[in-house]
Amino acid sequence: xxxxxxxxxxxxxxxxxxxxxxxxxxxxxxxxxxxxxxxxxxxxxxxxxxxxxxxxxxxxxxxxxxxxxxxxxxxxxxxxxxxxxxxxxxxxxxxxxxxxxxxxxxxxxxxxxxxxxxxxxxxxxxxxxxxxxxxxxxxxxxxxxxxxxxxxxxxxx
Amino acid sequence: xxxxxxxxxxxxxxxxxxxxxxxxxxxxxxxxxxxxxxxxxxxxxxxxxxxxxxxxxxxxxxxxxxxxxxxxxxxxxxxxxxxxxxxxxxxxxxxxxxxxxxxxxxxxxxxxxxxxxxxxxxxxxxxxxxxxxxxxxxxxxxxxxxxxxxxxxxxxxxxxxxxxxxxxxxxxxxxxxxx
Lengths: 157, 179
Fold this sequence. Notes:
The complex is a heterodimer.
Chain A: H1 2-38, E1 52-55, H2 56-65, H3 67-74, E2 78-89, E3 95-100, E4 108-113, H4 118-122, E5 129-139, E6 143-150
Parallel strand pairs in A: 1-2, 4-6
Antiparallel strand pairs in A: 2-3, 2-5, 3-4, 5-6
Helix pairs in contact in A: 2-3
Chain B: H1 2-21, E1 22-35, E2 40-53, E3 58-64, E4 69-70, H2 73-83, E5 91-98, E6 108-117, E7 120-132, E8 137-146, E9 165-173, E10 175-176
């Protein structure tokens, strides 16, 4: 009789532990899924260590010569581009820098800058050479890069 | 002498005329909205390319589907990987004509053409408002796109989350195209 009671108490303890583990597990999963759902769609490119470095002329030439190959090389990757500022635009309430190629074609690297880069852009002039890091999205008439941040600090100082 | 000179003088003028007919934007804005009782989804692309010949009314629009920015990363991931399959179909292309091109000051005009999206080519007709700006011309307006028209498969579980007709808004601020 006593053994049966002890066994019953042990069983109740086990059930309590299992229920507790399930509760903690489901609570943690819910929190994780909620955080994933609420995660903002902005990439932190400044901290990214896997970076493809290039310049405006080279990346534009790559896309013009073989768009498929260039897509495989650059698209959805963090790319650091060095180039000369051709245009600065504030259209659509965005801060955009356009970098030109050495051969002065009308195809540019369009860099959609992160809002935190505003001070940097305010100090920029047409003709400045800059290094910009961002996520390459592909090629239309120009190479399109989003989530861009300035890398060289010469103009900031 | 004049037979040689006149074409030489006229050539740059003709070229200048051609330059002025074409207008371009690299930063056209296209947004889409899906309203349902479960959730609202919206995304914006600020790097839409468009070129238009004001004389003939020809208009071309291209956009990278990956350049649509959502508020939530998960929505952006589902959009690109599951719905529009941007690896397979990276661009949306529209090629058409403004039907009622003319000098009359019409504010609303019709653009008719083929939209190539997600491997489906479909003829569409869009009403656009036309405005003049200091730099050139602004086209803006909105229209609806049926999800089913472009073979976009939505899993049954997620169907209540996504509207059957997606509302699309556009704004293109053109400037003269210098070749």
